[in-house]
Design a protein that fits this description.
By secondary structure, this protein is mainly beta. It contains 1 helix and 10 strands. The strands form 3 sheets. A 4-stranded antiparallel beta sheet has the order 1-10-4-7, with no helix packed on it. Strands 3-8-5-6 form a 4-stranded antiparallel beta sheet, with no helix packed on it. The radius of gyration is 19 Å and the shape is globular. The N and C termini lie far apart (43 Å).
Length: 163
Amino acid sequence: MKTNKSKFIVFVFVAFSIISCDSKREYDAISSIADNSWKSENAVSFNFEVKDTINKKDLFLTIRNNQKYSYSNLFLITTLRFPNGKKIVDTLEYEMADNSGHFLGKGFTGIKENKLFYKENVVFPMSGEYAVSVSQAMRKNGAINGIESLKGITEVGFRIEKK
């Protein structure tokens, strides 16, 4: 009888721990990349509703890559569209591998997940429908034209967390 009670207590503790780890999440979506090859003309878009115009939020991009990703960094272009039509465009660079070539991020298999800061301490100025689009902007060193199809990116996501 005591064993069942102990197992139940452990189960409740583990379940609570898992649930509470994600208590900051307000929005979280992920989109798969066809054939694990991200075409430069294919922006990944996320639409989300904002009601809270008072509290600060952190915005993240999630990038999942496999072993076919052959670069140590990643350049992205993001566009944040406001309900009134205003937009903010950013060019971002993220490290994807350490100096020895090992991929950064979490994951036990050949897929690594990177949760990357996009914007910190954001207060949305108005309520309504927003959109974020993300496209890859990789180029080989010395090349003028970008890489048309970036192999090894499996998924792209967008996440909003409460502070």
